């Protein structure tokens, strides 16, 4: 099989695409690697909170794990604010789409909508409706989203909470992002 790839996609062959697919699959470890680097970058993002966003993400995941959450949920907790490395306003959609092939669909919606669930605690201060989570009351994942927000996410700004390290979660990250499952 040739490893010489095309210079223009309209000249590509099946053999070249077979090669690209195999190379892409063999480089899957890049996903976990990039997630770790984006999480590390969150150490630089504080934006007025009492802890930086890496600590907040690790603390959210620590609380979920302490409550017996699944590995996919713990991974979602770690990643839920990762979009803040790029853009705060649309960070839930960034995180949700990174997670989408790796966590069950309900969990995707939990992360996609998590800002509106968190809004219960602060949207009122910003002149917004704090009850936007009510729009999702009929969804199968509503209770899961309430638990994520009320028990783990909104509480995780405590500098004194015994928060586990990124190294502690390294094996879980490697496992959850080792291959697309959904
Ligand atoms: Fe958060």
Features:
single chain, 182 residues, mainly alpha, 9 helices, 49% helix, globular, binds fe (ii) ion
Q: Average pLDDT value?
A: 97
How many runs of DSSP E, i.e. beta strands?
Answer: 0
Our estimate of the beta-strand percent is under 5%
Question: How far apart are the first and last residues' alpha carbons, in Å?
Answer: 30 Å
The radius of gyration is 19 Å
What general outline do the C-alpha atoms trace?
Answer: globular
Helix content: 40-55%
Describe the structure.
This protein starts with 13 loop residues before the first helix and ends in a 6-residue tail after the last helix. The protein is globular. Helix 3 crosses helix 8. Helix content is 49%, strand content 0%. The chain is mainly alpha-helical and 182 residues long. The structure holds fe (ii) ion (FE2). Fe (ii) ion binds next to helix 3.
